Every structure is written in structure tokens, then in C-alpha cells.
Amino acid sequence: MIPVIDIAPLVKLNSGNSNSIEATSAELDSVVKSIADACQNFGFFAAINHGVDTASINDAWNASEEFFDMEPAIKQSVPMTDDYPYGYENYESLGIERSTSDAKKQGTAAISPDSKETFSLGPSDAEKSNMPSRKFPSNASSNFAPALTRYYSAMEHLARILFQGFSMALKLEGASWFLEEGRFDDGHQCALRILNYPELEYVLTDATPLHIRAGAHTDYGAMTILKSGGPGLQLCTDKDSAAWIDVPHLEDSFIINLGDLMQRWTNDTWKSTLHRVVATNSDGDNRASDDGEILFKSARRQSIAFFVNMNGNATIEPLETCVDESHPSRYVPIKASEHLIQRHKQSMMARGENE
Predict the structure, then answer these.
(1) CA 350, CA 73: separation in Å to the nearest integer?
(2) Per-residue pLDDT tens digits for 40-74
(3) Sign (positive/negative) of CA torsion 271, 277, 282, 286?
């Protein structure tokens, strides 16, 4: 099971109340140690007592559900394109099994496309981030844009809180090291993505014991803050054995996972862990069809992911605290935006090889 970390001391630290900081110094040290251990051993943890307003979460959740229930023409009115990397998409294969032998390890069919639809939103400041201006479907509900905008802002704030914990866990110069101008400020390139995994039913066979909702992959950026609507998320800490661990669904928590950029930044001290989403049985009982086949039914699943990306011009090179004689630098310096482009191209090439 992944670590569950109470980040209330970090939330208090971010409030700027010196009395609160003194009162929770021991707790703060404990949280920082827990974060360091989780990031080094799992690359995942669940954050509780995160300070995010419940109303903001519920509004975004309800607006997302309502949006995905709308007519296709409305959802597709703002499509994801080469020029606009946000908007609506209903086919994305993040992970396609590379071979039949790998597929057997994964317990899936050799090629298993993702089954989900998404809508993504970029930074509010297009000029500073050097990303396209936001677009919303004109015929979506009146609450859709405001709800997602508020949630995006709440995730920006939570990211800053987590970055302070990361700075202390990595023993950097000050708790605000990641938040300094040029690294993570108003020019960041974070993306919000709402996801809908429709209800599905399929024939259960020996060749396909489970259905992949989102293929095995790692995230590209610094970290991802996930609000999950149910079970199904799995992680793999050992790629050779392909042993998958179920990530527990905790109602009032966020799942935090590190991305490839953070693994690079920490010189592989911290992990960007392979993960996927699988269909789970909605009622705990498979049933037989009229011709005797076993049918597996999985309920609809929603989630909201916030991909934390640094400023595009931020220089990413192994941190001094993660480099020594026993652990020499493994990476050359690279701009954060170049890293994202590089990882995206690698993903597209891998997809092409398997199609």
C-alpha cells in the first residue's frame, strides 16, 4: 500500500503563521521525512488534510460529470489539436503493450486501447506561460468554466504547498526553492484534465482477464495531483516483474505521483513510477450471457488530474543534494519545455511502433 501522509503541517507552514510553524515543527519534520521516503521508494503517496475547499472539489466534479453527459457535438466543439494541446479528446493510448510476452506479464491483451474521454485546460496566463489561451465549449453549462477555473487555482495553491515539502525533503536552500521566480511562478505550464471512463461490459476470457482503462505509462512533468472517483489505479514499482499494486481509494484525499522531470531533477533519487487504470467490477459479481460467456461489467469512473509543469524556461539539471562521488550526475541540463516535448515525441514514437 502506498504511504498516506497528513500534510496539515505543510498547509500551516504555507499560511505564514509563525506561531503555527513553531507549534508543529516536530510534525513538520515527520511530514518531510515521510515525503522523502515515499518519493524515493514509491514515487506515489496519498495526501490527506490538504486544505482544499470541499465546495471547489464538488463543483468541479459535478461540472465534469454534466459535461461528459452532453451531446458529442458540444464536447467536440473544442477539440484537442496539434496547435491546441488542450480541449476534448476521446481516444488516447498512453500505453500500448510492446509485445505478447510483455502483455502476458501485464495480464492484458497484446494491444489494449484506452477507454476514456477527456477535456483539458491550460494556464490562465497565456502570455507568461507561452501556451495557448483557454477555450471552453460555448454551449456547456454556465458553471463549467467557473468551476474548472476555481479548481485549477486550488491545485496551483496545493502544488506550491507540496513543493515546499519537496524542497525540505531534498535539503535545498529554503522551503521555497522550487517556487523561486523562473522555476514555478505565474509562467508555469500546468494542465488540468478531467477524465470520464464510461460504463463498460465485455466478455471475460483467459486472453483478456482485465480491461485497460488507461495504459501503463509515466507522467512527463514534475508531479501529478489526482482526485480519483474510485478504485482502478495501479502502480508498478518493479518493471521487470510487472507486479501491480492497487492504489487505495481514499474519499477525502489526493493521490500525488512524481513525473519524469522530477526523477531527472533528483538524479534518479526519486521515482517516476509506471501506472495504469484498469476496469474494476462494479457489483463484485460477473454474470453469464445467454450463450454461456462470462460478462464483466465495470461502472463509470471519473477523475481529475492536475499535471504540475514548471516554467518552460526553467533549467532542469541534477540537484546538488542528489549528486556525490557515489551518485554522479546522470543527466545534462535541459529546459523544462524541451523535456516535455522530448518525452511527448518518445511517447508518440512508441505508439507508432505498436500500431
Answers:
(1) 31
(2) 999 999 999 999 999 999 999 999 999 999 999 99
(3) negative
Cell of 239: 518493471
Question: CA Rg, the chain, in Å?
Answer: 21
Would you mind telling me the total number of residues written for the chain in this entry?
355
Q: Nearest-CA neighbor of 268 among 32, 34, 42, 40?
A: 40
Helix (H) or strand (E) holding 288: strand 287-288
Contact partners, residue 233, CB within 8 Å, separation at least 6: 226, 246, 247, 249, 255, 275, 276, 277
Asked if 293 contacts 203 with a C-beta cutoff of 8 angstroms, the reply is yes
**Beta strands at 87-89 and 117-121: parallel, antiparallel or unpaired:** antiparallel
- pLDDT per position as a tens digit, 251-264: 999 999 999 999 99
Give the Cα separation of 235 and 256 in Å (integer). Answer: 12
Q: What is d(CA 137, CA 88) in angstroms, rounded to the nearest whole number?
A: 9
* SS3 category, 277: strand
Which tens digit of pLDDT belongs to each residue from 190-211? 999 999 988 877 777 665 667 7
Q: Could you tell me which residue, 237 or 144, shows the higher pLDDT?
A: 144
Nearest to 34 by CA among 295, 26, 223, 283: 26
Instruction: Kindly report which listed range (89-103, 195-209, 221-235) carries the lowest average pLDDT score.
Output: 89-103
Side-chain half-sphere CA neighbours of 255 within 13 A: 28
**Coil, helix or strand for 287?**
strand
Pairing between strand 254-258 and 223-228? antiparallel
Q: Which region holds residue 170: left if phi is over 0, alpha if psi is between -120 and 50, else beta?
A: alpha
Q: For residue 82, how far is the Cα from the chain centroid?
A: 22
Residue 168 confidence (pLDDT) above 70: yes
